[in-house]
Amino acid sequence: MNKKRKETVKKSYRSRRTTAVFWICLVLVLLPFAVLGWILFSAARDTHTPVLGNRYKGDLDPAITTEEIKEIDTNVAAADGVESEFSNLATGTLRVYAKVADDATADTAAATAQNIYQIVSQTLDPSVYFTQSDGKKMYDLEIHVYNYNADQDRSADSFVYVIGTKTSSMTDPLYETVSQAKSPELAAKLEQDVADRKAQEAAASASPAATAGTQAAQ
After folding, report:
1. What's the gap between Cα 72 and its chain centre?
2. What strands, in cross-sheet order, belong to the sheet with 174-177?
3. Residue 50 has what pLDDT?
C-alpha cells in the first residue's frame, strides 16, 4: 500500500514538474514574439506623429515674444518706401519681408533693408538677441526686400531682391542683392548653354527622321 502511494506521489510530482517546465518553455518561446508585436504596434500607432524635441534647449534666452514681433511689424510698415510687410519667426530665425515700389532700384532696396535693420534693433538689441555669447546660440535675422511680388514677372531685368543677414555668429549684418548674378559673365554663359541645348532638342525633334516617324505613326 505504501509502495503504491509512493509511486502515485512520484507520478504526481513528475506531472507537476513536466507541466511547469512546459509552461516555462512556452513563455520563453512566446516572449520574443510578444515583445516584437508590441514594438510593431507602437510603431504603427506612432506613424505620422512627429518626434518633437528641443534643439535650442538652453539657447534663445531671452526669447522673442509675439508682442515684440507685432511692434516690429508696425514700425516697418510705417517706414519710408515700404508698401507692405510681414514677419515670420521659425526655427530660431526671425525673417522680415518688405515690398517696395516696382521701380525701386537695388540701391533703394539695400537702403531699405539697412533701415529695417535699424528698426528691428530699436525693439530687439542685436547684441542680446542676434549675438551668441558664452556658447549660447541666439537668433538669426534675415531681412528680405523686393520690388516684385511672387505673382509678378520676377524674370524681368528690373526685378530687385535684397537680403540682409545677421546670424548670431556674425559681428555685422551682410547685405546681398540676390537678384543680380555675382558673375554676369558666368550667368550669361549658363543662360546661353541652356538656350543652345533647347535649340538642339527642338532641331532633333524636327529632324527628317523624326518627321517621317511621326507621319508613319499617323
Report:
1. 24
2. 84-90, 93-99, 140-146, 161-166, 174-177
3. 46
Would the pTM of this model clear 0.85, i.e. be above it? no
Nearest CA to 99 out of 157, 154, 142, 146 is that of: 146
Question: In terms of DSSP H, where are the helices of 46-171?
Answer: 66-77, 106-123, 126-129
Q: Which three cell numbers stand for residue 98?
A: 518688405
Tell me how far apart the alpha carbons of residues 148 and 158 are, in angstroms, rounded to a whole number.
9
Q: How many CA atoms lie within 13 A of 56 on its CB side?
A: 14
C-alpha R_g of the chain: 35
Q: Are 99 and 84 in contact (CB under 8 A)?
A: yes
pLDDT, tens only, 95-135? 999 999 999 999 999 999 999 999 999 999 999 999 998 88
CA–centroid distance for 79 within its chain: 30
- Residue-wise pLDDT tens digits, 195-218: 888 888 888 877 655 555 555 555
Residue type, position 147, single letter: N
- d(CA 52, CA 48) in angstroms, rounded, equals 12
CA distances from 46 to 40, 52, 139 (A): 10, 12, 32
